[in-house]
Design brief:
Length: about 270
C-alpha cells in the first residue's frame, strides 16, 4: 500500500536577485517525511524562516522542489494542467493563515462556498442551486456553523474565528483526504484559538482526514498532534511522537522551544 504522502530528500533553493545572480537561499534542505493512509495530524514546528511554509507550498503543488521527490498516493505532485490540478485539489486542500486574505472584502462569503461546490461536485456534473446549497451547508455543519449564519454576509461581518471556520468549511467541500493548514490560528483571537485547534482533531476523527498543521507554537502542536517535526534553517532537527518530542526533546533547539512553552504556561 502506498503512503498518503511522501517527501523524499526534498530540497528547495531560491535564487536571489536577477536571472544572472549567483546568490541563492536554501529554504529547505534534504527533508524526508511520510504520512500513512491512517488519519493522522502531523505538525511541522519552527520559527519564521525555518522552511515549514515552503514545505506546505511544495505539498500543495504551488512550487516544485529543486531536488528530491514528492508523491501523493504514489504519484508525483506535479500539477500543471487545469484538469490535473483540479483532480489533485479534490484530495488536498489548503487552510491559509489569514482568513481575511482568503476572501475578497467586496464579495459575499457564501459565493465562495457555492463556487467551490460547483467546481467540485462529486459526479463531475454542474449541480443545481439546491444541491450547491446542500453541499455548502453540510460542510459548514462540520465546523459548527450553518449556511443561514453566513449567507449574504461579507467577510467584515464575520468574526475572525467565524471566517476561519468558513474557510475550513470551504476546504471540506471537495471531501479531501488531506488538509494543509499553514499557521491557521495565528490571526485568530487568543480566546478562539483552541476552539479551532480542537476542530482539527474533530475533523480527523469524524471525517478520517489527515492534517498537516504548520505552526511556530509547540504547545498547540503538542496538544493536537500525533507526530511532530521540528525544523530549523530548512532542516529537520527532530521528529517523533508528540509526547516523546515534548517530554524528552533531544536537539538543543527542541529543548529551547520546550523551555519557552514552560516559561509562558501559567501555573494551575
Amino acid at each position: 500500500m502506498n503512503d498518503l504522502l511522501s517527501l523524499s530528500h526534498v530540497t528547495k533553493i531560491y535564487r536571489q536577485g536577477g536571472l544572472l545572480s549567483r546568490r541563492h537561499i536554501t529554504a529547505v534542505s534534504d527533508v524526508s517525511l511520510t504520512l500513512g493512509e491512517e488519519p493522522e495530524i502531523l505538525s511541522i514546528v519552527g520559527e519564521s524562516g525555518s522552511g515549514k511554509s515552503t514545505i506546505a507550498a511544495m505539498i500543495l503543488g504551488q512550487t516544485a522542489p529543486t531536488e528530491g521527490r514528492l508523491d501523493f498516493r504514489g504519484s508525483p505532485v506535479a500539477v500543471h494542467g487545469r484538469a490535473e490540478r483540479r483532480a489533485f485539489m479534490r484530495q488536498v486542500q489548503p487552510v491559509l493563515q489569514n482568513p481575511f486574505e482568503a476572501f475578497n472584502p467586496l464579495k459575499r462569503v457564501d459565493r465562495y462556498l457555492f463556487e467551490t461546490a460547483r467546481s467540485f461536485a462529486p459526479d463531475g456534473k454542474r449541480p443545481d442551486r439546491a444541491a450547491v446549497e446542500r453541499m455548502a451547508d453540510e460542510a459548514l455543519s462540520h465546523i459548527g456553523l450553518t449556511l443561514a449564519e453566513v449567507k449574504g454576509r461579507f467577510p467584515h461581518e464575520l468574526s475572525g474565528g467565524q471566517l476561519q471556520r468558513t474557510a475550513i468549511a470551504r476546504a471540506l467541500i471537495p471531501q479531501p483526504r488531506l488538509l494543509v493548514a499553514d499557521e491557521p490560528v495565528s490571526m485568530v483571537d487568543a480566546s478562539l484559538r483552541m476552539a479551532i485547534v480542537n476542530l482539527f482533531g474533530q475533523l480527523k476523527r469524524e471525517l478520517g482526514l489527515s492534517i498537516i498543521y504548520i505552526t511556530h507554537d509547540l504547545a498547540t502542536a503538542y496538544y493536537i498532534s500525533d507526530r511532530i517535526i521540528i525544523m530549523k534553517k530548512g532542516e529537520i532537527v527532530e521528529q517523533g511522537k508528540a509526547r516523546a518530542v515534548l517530554d524528552n526533546p533531544q536537539h538543543p533547539y527542541s529543548q529551547a522551544l520546550k523551555e519557552a512553552v514552560l516559561s509562558t504556561t501559567p501555573a494551575l
